[in-house]
Write a sequence for this structure.
């Protein structure tokens, strides 16, 4: 009797194990399909964005030549005689980005050196999260900070600085992307083996010499990639320059004056009176495509640098 009960329990156990194994096999078969669908959605979304930009930009270039668009310094989409030169926008975008990088690179890199080479583990755990809090602040808050706090201070320091200028948002953009430069650079430096540090110190090098002559060259690919990604972030910034830089479309190199970036132009024009289907409306897609090409080039440069100068230990 007991033997029969044991046999029935064994049979039930085998059936349960078989069902569990079958369920696991079904899950294993479903997981690749789910992952493929997820990846496919990402690819389709990217293709859809690019397709939309190209199709509507081509409608713009039917009326405006590529030569005029990329060489003219006159931008007046809603004027009596509309003109669509993108150079003022490219100029404003690049100048604000250069100012931002002049702030972010030295502060971010020195912060990374401190966190990687000088700070104790306890200090690193405190400072790094605090530094990364800057990345979580909404950009519109940075915009108001640039306009209502930084600009008034700069007006007392820089003669002739206008209420709307490119200097103030450029500085604040640099503050915003410091965490990107610092965090990615610190990660690259921390990945350098301690044996290289100990060897350099053993030869009589100071900590600063080790950081500048050993660690930074060894982590160069990661550091440069952080710079390029930060540049891409600055190029694509919208709200800070929209609020603090204004909408001056003049082609100028005077950082005391108002300038407009490509992203700010898109925001201004979409919230204005441009009618759908007009040349001015399609200029948004031409500018958007130009901006997309800029950021794509920056990302390709970052990937190239990472592959070209990568050190493996």
């Amino acid at each position: 009797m007991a033997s029969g009960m044991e046999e029935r329990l064994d049979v039930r156990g085998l059936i349960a194990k078989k069902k569990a194994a079958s369920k696991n096999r079904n899950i294993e078969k479903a997981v690749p399909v789910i992952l493929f669908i997820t990846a496919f959605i990402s690819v389709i979304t990217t293709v859809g964005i690019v397709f939309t930009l190209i199709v509507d930009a081509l409608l713009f270039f039917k009326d405006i030549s590529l030569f005029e668009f990329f060489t003219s310094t006159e931008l007046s989409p809603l004027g009596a005689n509309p003109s669509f030169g993108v150079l003022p926008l490219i100029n404003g975008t690049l100048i604000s980005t250069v100012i931002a990088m002049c702030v972010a690179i030295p502060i971010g890199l020195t912060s990374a050196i401190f966190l990687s080479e000088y700070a104790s583990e306890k200090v690193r755990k405190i400072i790094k999260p605090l530094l990364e809090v800057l990345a979580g602040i909404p950009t519109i808050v940075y915009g108001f900070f640039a306009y209502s706090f930084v600009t008034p201070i700069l007006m007392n320091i820089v003669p002739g600085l206008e209420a709307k200028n490119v200097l103030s948002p450029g500085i604040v953009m640099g503050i915003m992307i410091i965490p990107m430069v610092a965090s990615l650079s610190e990660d690259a430096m921390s990945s350098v083996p301690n044996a290289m540090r100990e060897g350099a110190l053993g030869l009589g090098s100071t900590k600063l010499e080790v950081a500048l002559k050993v660690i930074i060259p060894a982590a160069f690919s990661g550091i440069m990639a952080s710079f390029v990604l930060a540049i891409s972030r600055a190029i694509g910034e919208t709200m800070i320059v929209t609020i603090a830089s204004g909408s001056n479309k003049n082609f100028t190199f005077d950082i005391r004056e108002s300038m407009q970036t490509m992203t700010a132009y898109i925001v201004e024009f979409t919230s204005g009176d441009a009618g759908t289907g007009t040349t001015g409306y399609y200029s948004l897609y031409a500018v958007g495509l130009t901006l997309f090409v800029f950021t794509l080039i920056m990302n390709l440069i970052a990937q190239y640098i990472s592959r070209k100068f990568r050190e493996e230990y």
In short: The chain has twelve helices and two strands. Residues 2 and 8 are 10 Å apart (CA to CA). Residues 2-61 form the longest helix (60 residues).
